[in-house]
Amino acid sequence: MEMKLVDVWENKVLAGIKIRVCYENIVDDTSNHDVGYCFLSDRRNACFADRDRFLKAIIDDPEVFDRFAVIRQGQLVWNRGALQKWLRDYAEFQKLVLARCEMLSGAPGRGTELTAMTYRNTKASITL
Question: What's the pTM value of the predicted model, to 2 decimals?
Fold first, then answer.
């Protein structure tokens, strides 16, 4: 399963683009209870600062760009079919990641626990 996950990530989600995020220095402020806070938007995590990095990489790679879009009469036209396929591939990746997390994290979580996981603080978040 892990090999399939890596293959889906590298070849389908990233479309073969060699892009990497350095995870060694990611920080998270678990004492921050502000609505909307998330480690992904924490300014100390410079690796997430350029939110358009992947899109720029697609545009800069002619072969990948041609798969997702064309320029017609000076206008960018997205290939909706290719984008929908990419979304299905991304959903497959997320499914595999969830399965790997379940398999590697000890006792299996219940469905209610899995569906209640959040990555960003909400108004209803209560942290003890």
Answer: 0.77
